[in-house]
Amino acid sequence: xTTPRRYPGFLVLVLGxxxxxxxxxxxxxxxxxxxxxxxxxxxxxxxxxxxxxxQKMGQNxxxxxxxxxxxxxxxxxxxxxxxxxxxxxxxxxxxxxxxMTMLPHLQVKMPWDILRDFEAVSLVATVEWGLVVxxxxxxxxxxxxxxxxxxAPGQINYGSGGNGSPxxxxxxxxxxxxxxxxxxVPYKGATQAAMGVAGNEVHAAFQGIATVNSLVRADKVRLxxxxxxRRMPQFADVPTVSESGLPGFEFNSWxxxxxxAGTPKAIVQTLHSEISRALADPxxxxxxxxxxxxxxxxxxxxxxxDMRAQLARYGALIKxxxxxxx
Length: 326
What we know:
Elements lengths: L6 H21 L6 E5 L6 H17 L3 E5 L6 H9 L6 E5 L1 H6 L15 E17 L7 H10 L5 E4 L5 H13 L4 E4 L3 H9 L5 E5 H9 L3 E6 L14 H4 L7 E9 L4 H15 L2 H9 L2 E3 L4 H22 L5
Parallel strand pairs: 1-2, 1-3, 5-6
Antiparallel strand pairs: 3-9, 4-7, 4-8, 4-9, 4-10
């Protein structure tokens, strides 16, 4: 009588070893440097925040997180490169909410879908915003800037990081709600727009405070209002826009970490845990707060919910104000 072959047991053993090896490989993440694409100019608020947080995350994880700036087309190109990347946790996106929740309402045809083509990782920090004018400008409050705009309709111009950028959206909403006409001057990025104010090429701009912090400290531009609900402790003598010109006006933006759709949930959770760990570091928090950022560290599910809500909110506001990408 022939002895039955025992291949099934052997196969079970091989499959078990393979599964064990895969589990070990996943547990070893990251095993090489991680690339974070920031579709914004170097020196922008999100870029500054990304460098602070990524450095600490890299130290904690034992692998460098390399920031790669890919500005242009209001973030479409850089975000698209993240969407097309392998979903293995080694290409991430450091986005602002303009890319995520404003741009989709300003493009006739989007090359990617923020909800379909990306995995939410975490809302890392909110970027607090301010209204700036040139250091020698006569305006010292939001009310005075609005008064100038009413006196000379269309003669007050403002800079932004490009059509559809958050600087564009913020000022367009400000002008619309105040009932004034101002002229938009798009630059290639937020940093260039800030330098445009410092160089008196444009009269004013809304900017993430992290972008203009060094210019404010160096007296290159004057911060005449913040868009937070209450005054910021770092700028206690600067009134809110709401109290000094346009009641109820508030604005901020996000630094959110995203991954390509299909990135394993275990990797997404690892990244979220490492963000939380980095944000718990007192030095990291101090650096972010000093630059005008508020650490958050929300979960992937929370960020996904925030995105849906923000998409609806900005869709309505952009339509009401008649804002276009042109």
